[in-house]
Task: structure prediction
Amino acid sequence: MKKFIVLFLVNSLFAKVNIVASITDLADIAATIGGKEVKVTAIAKGTQNPHYVEVLPSYMLKVRRADIYLKVGMELDLWSQQIIDGSRNGRVRIVDCSQNIKRLEVPTGKVDASQGDIHRLGNPHYWLDPENGVIIAETITEALSAVDPKHQELYQTNLEAFRRELESRLRRWQEEYADLQGKNIIFYHNSWPYFAQRFGLKTVGFVEDKPGIPPTPAHLNDLMEVIRQQGVRIVAMEPYFSDRAPEFLREKTGIRVVKLAQSVGALPGADSYLDLFELNLKTLQSIWGE
Amino acid sequence: MSIKHLYCAAFLLGGLTAQTTVNPDVTAIGDLLYGPDTGWTTSGVELALQGYVNPYAYATAILHKPDGETPVDLEEGFLSIDRGLPLGLGLKLGRFRPDVGHVNREHEHTYAYIDPLESAVTFLGEEMWSGNGLAVNALLPLPWYSQLEMNVLSALPETPDSLFAPGGALAWSWRQFWDLGLYSHLEWGLGDIAPSGSASNSVWNTYLKFKWKPDSYRAAILQAEGFALTGRKNRPAGGYVWGDLRIRKVWSVGFVVDGVWQEKDLHVRAGVMAGFSPVEETTVFRWILLQDSTHQWSWKTQVVWSLGPHKPHQF
Result:
C-alpha cells in the first residue's frame, strides 16, 4: 500500500499538463509554451477542413483526462463542444483562444444562410496572422499558469522566447517578402483575410461564390473576367478543397493554382506554426518572381 | 391535459421567457415526397431546439407537426447531463429515444432510404421508440470508447403487431467504438428492451456500423442491424443492411435490404437509392427504387431541407 501511495505521489509530481487543441496550430503553440511540462494532442489534422470535423468518440477519450481544451472559437470549431461533453470531463479548463484577438469581418447586419457559411462573430481564421500567434500564446500561457502554477515561470520564459522569435521572423518576412505588397490574388475560401492584411495582399475574389458554397458556372465566368481585367496571377487554395474549379480557371485563363498551408501539417514543410508562414510566403513569392 | 401537452407548454414557455443573448440552436426540417401510389405528401415539419441550461446540462426539445389534422407531437424533450456527475456518469431525464440500437437514434429526415424500414417498424414502431423516464450511462474503463446505458421508461415500443402489451420498459445498451484509421471507424452495439414487469418477452438488438470519411467530398456508410423477440412461439426476427456512398460532395448512391421473419413468413425488400445535395448540409434530393419478395416494384422521391445546424443526411 505504501509503495502504491509513493508511486502515486511520484506520478503526481512528474505529471504533465494534458492539453487537447481543436487544431494543430493551437497545439503547436501550446507545445512551444509548455515545453516538456505538457502533453499536447490536436483533434483536427492539418489536412482536414476545420469547419467540418467528424466527431468520433475516440476524441472524447482524448479529452477525458485533459486539463486544458484549446478552442479556436468564433464558431469555427462548434464540433468541439460535443467532444468535451462526451468526454465526461468536468474539470477540463476550456480556453477560447480567440478571446483577445482583434476580429476581422464581423458582420454588422442580419446574417442568414443566403449569405453562405458566414460566421456571426467574425472571420475565425485569425491564427493566419503571425501577430495573432503571440496573442494566442499569451492566452495559452495564462491558462497553463492557472492550471500548473508550479511551472508558471517556465511558461512565461517560453512565451517571451516565442514572442522574440516570432517578432524577429516577422520583421524578416516583411523585408524579404515586401514585393508581395499590393499583389492581386484570388483565394478559394475566405480563410485568408488576416494573412492578406499582414502581408499586404489584395484579395480580388473567391472561387466559392459565397463562403462554403461550391462555385456556380456563372460565378466562374465572372471570376475569369476579374482575372483578365486585373491581371491576377494566382489562385490560392487550402489542400483539402477540390481543385476542379481552380483547374478550370487555370485552363481558361492561365492563372496559377497554388496550395497554401492553412494549418500546421497541411502540407510538407508546414511542420510548425512559424514554418507555415515561411512555406506560404516562399510559395507565393516563387510564382510572382517568375 | 396529457404529459405531452405539459412538455410542449413547458418548452414553449421556456423558449419565450429565456430569450437572452444566449439563445438555443433552432433547426426546422421539412420535406416533400412523391410516389406513384401516394402522390404528393409530406412528413410535416420538425422543429429542434437545443442549448445549454448551465455549463453541465443540455436541453433538447424536438417537436413534430405531421401533415394534416394531427396535432404537434413532442418527439423528444429531455435534459442531459454529461459532465460533472460523480464516476463520470451521464444522465438523461425527460422524453427521449433510448440509445438501444442505431436506427432508434436516427431521425426520419436522415434516412437515405426515405421511408422507415419494415424491420425497424416491426420492433420499434412507426415513430421509433421513445418514452418518458431516465437513462444513466457510464463510459467503461477500456482502451476504446465503450458505453453502457440503462433506461427506465414509461412506455414500450408501439409496434404495429402489438409485440408488447402497454406498460413500462427497462432497457440496456452497450456501445463500442473503434477507430480503424484516420478516416474510418467501426461501431458495434448490443441491447435489449423488456417490459418492466417481465423480462421473458424482450427484444434483443445488435448493430454494426462502418463509416469512412476522408474529406467532405467522399464518404461511405455501411450499417446493419438485427432484432429478435424472445419468449414467444415462432420468434419474430428482422434486420436490415444499407450502404451509402458519397461522391464528389453532392452525389450519393446506395442500397438497402430489409427483411422480417414472422409467423413462418419471410418478407424481404431490396432497393437502390440515389441522392443529390446541391448545397451542402442544407438540402437533399433522394430517390429510391424497391422490389419486395412478391416482386412488386415501387419507387419514391423526396426533397428534404434543413434550416439550422441539423444536417438532413448522415454524411
Q: What stands out?
A: Chain B has two helices and 17 strands. Residues 88-307 of chain B form a domain with the Porin fold (CATH 2.40.160.10). The first helix of chain B runs from residue 3 to 17. The longest strand of chain B covers residues 184-195.
